[in-house]
Amino acid sequence: MSTSARVRADACPGVFATHDAADGPLARVRLPGGAITAARFEALADAADDLGDGALHLTSRGNVQLRGVTRPGLAGRLAAAGLLPSPSHERVRNILASPLSGTAQTLASALDKALCAVPELADLPGRFLFALDGGQGDVAGEGADVCWRDGAVLLAGEDTGLRVTAEHAVETLLAVARAFLRRRGTAWRVSELDDTEPLIEGIPGRIVEPRRFPVNPGLPIGRIGEATGVAPVFGRLTSAQARKIAKAGNAVVTPWRSILVLGAVEAEPGLITDPGEPSLGISACVGQPGCAKSLADVRADAARVGRTPRVHFAGCARRCGKPAREHVDVLATEDGYLVDGAFVPVGELAKALAEKGQQ
């Protein structure tokens, strides 16, 4: 059973239950597997212009957020564009899939349809995360509650020893989700359970000795065959940039705040296509003025540091959007930052992070 004793409700934002941020209501639009057609990308860009702050904000789960949504009509627009297939399940359609794996992307689409067809699974916590890894080891390292990795079934990132074919991947992940609902108590994540073995009991498949798989997170930036890997700075995509991507073709939004575009995209300010760009290693929460809890304008400070090791700037102890992989933790305080726990004045951040990169 669950070892967690949650005292507050799961408040993950969605389309119907938005989050009241300092810059206005925040809506999160789920993109299972990250896949989005050109037409739907344009629909999101239009919604951002007409109802929000004029930008699409990519998340660490391959979803898109609209900020400052102060005007009505978002749900209707999304439903008309096919981005809201199940209002009852919209907050639980949290599915990662390897961007470069056709198998994983196909399974993500099938999982989304099957998930939305099971009424009881609408009660999953908004933080419960599915993943489908084609064997690349990319999304398997992103902290999913249940992951199918080219046959292997992982719970909270750990191999269970259960092996199922791609044909049975969707039914297996849904069976784990059902079992989690029965045993969760007040837990939001599989990692909060004291015993995960019951989650796979009775699931058909082959049992082998569990192993530790290597992970290789991230999407290459630049040309990838006929596609292009692009990264908006800090995951913020202007509506104009979104339309430019839509003109290039369909796309996959990744959990690394990048986009695999199935066509050619040229670089422009704020849209990175050069794998050598220094800012690729930097991520940051929205910070001030968008978040009332933030103690600093972290994105402005991050933009001044230059080349760094992989680093995440956070405006408060919640550390929203921090990457699952190893990184330098930069946490805002009232008068500076804690860099991996050591205080550094704002004016010395660049030097401190450069030294981190040499260690």
Describe, in plain words, how this protein is organized in 3D.
This protein is of the alpha+beta class and 359 residues long. The chain has three domains: 18-87 and 218-276, Sulfite Reductase Hemoprotein,Domain 2 (Sulfite Reductase Hemoprotein, domain 2, Alpha-Beta Complex); 91-216, 2-Layer Sandwich (Sulfite Reductase Hemoprotein, domain 1); 279-358, Sulfite Reductase Hemoprotein, domain 1. 21% of the residues lie in helices and 23% in strands. It has seven helices and 22 strands. It has helices spanning 38-51, 74-80, 102-116, 169-183, 239-248, 298-302, 349-358, and strands spanning 19-21, 24-29, 35-36, 55-58, 64-66, 95-97, 130-133, 146-149, 152-155, 158-163, 206-207, 222-224, 227-232, 236-238, 251-253, 259-261, 271-272, 282-284, 311-314, 328-333, 336-339, 342-344. Strands 3, 12, 13, 15, 16 and 17 form a six-stranded antiparallel sheet that branches. Strand 18 (282-284), helix 6 (298-302) and strand 19 form a beta-alpha-beta unit. Helix 1 packs antiparallel against helix 5 (239-248) and helix 3 packs across helix 4 (169-183). The N and C termini lie far apart (42 Å). InterPro entries: NIR_SIR_4Fe-4S, NiRdtase/SiRdtase_haem-b_fer, Nit/Sulf_reduc_fer-like_dom_sf, NO2/SO3_Rdtase_4Fe4S_sf. Keywords: 4Fe-4S, Heme, Iron, Iron-sulfur, Metal-binding, Oxidoreductase. Residues 27-70 form the Nitrite/Sulfite reductase ferredoxin-like domain. This is Precorrin-3B synthase. GO terms for molecular function: 4 iron, 4 sulfur cluster binding; metal ion binding; oxidoreductase activity.
